[in-house]
Design goal:
Elements lengths: L19 H38 L1
Length: 58
């Protein structure tokens, strides 16, 4: 018969220690990606609203 293994013992441990330099690198890369993408998304939404507003004014 197969040996039953508790589900909690499968996979990596929940409390992993991450190198502070690696954590800082990951956070900085996320910021470098998120700020321009968020800015472009905001400009795109603003342009959609602006063009809709100009059509309603006519």
């Amino acid at each position: 018969m197969a040996k039953l293994v508790p589900i909690s013992s499968i996979g990596p441990p929940t409390s992993t220690n991450v190198d502070p330099e690696a954590r800082q690198l990951v956070i900085s890369q996320l910021v470098v990606i998120a700020v321009p993408v968020g800015t472009l998304f905001g400009v795109w939404i603003w342009m959609l609203n602006w063009s809709g507003r100009s059509r309603r004014d006519q």
